Amino acid sequence: MPYVVTEACIRCKYMDCCEVCPVDCFYEGENMLVINPEECIDCGVCEPECPIEAIVSDRDSRAEKWTEINAQYAKIWPNITHKGQVPEDADDWKEKPDKGDLFSAEPGQG
Q: In the chain, how long is the greatest CA-to-CA distance?
């Protein structure tokens, strides 16, 4: 049962999670991260590192829509293993709900 990055990550992308992942299963998009479900070992160390609680178990109802998005984009976005530059306006977006429409399919820097 892997973990899933949900829409709460969109436009925030703090990246604290990828620093602690023992299997480097995070992938970077233009405005969010995803977890490769085939690589995630369900250890859970990433979940408490996310300051906006964007990472949930795939059994959580918030993961439903985002499980497939994580699997799909982890195959094409670059792997990220270290914290990069957080978006300058991340704090402005961290409390905003319903950010799914802002999802970008474009890859990040990796």
A: 33
* CA dist list (Å): 102 to 34, 46, 95, 98, 105: 15, 23, 14, 9, 10
Q: How does DSSP classify residue 63?
A: G
Tens of pLDDT along the chain (110 residues) come to 799 999 999 999 999 999 999 999 999 999 999 999 999 999 999 999 999 999 999 999 999 999 999 999 999 999 999 999 999 999 999 999 999 999 999 999 98
CA distance 69 to 49: 21
How many residues does the structure list for the chain?
A: 110
Q: Give the side-chain half-sphere CA count within 13 A for 54.
A: 31
Q: What is the pTM (predicted TM-score) of this model?
A: 0.95
CB 25 within 8 A of CB 36: yes
Torsion, Cα 42 45 47 52, to 10 degrees, reads -160
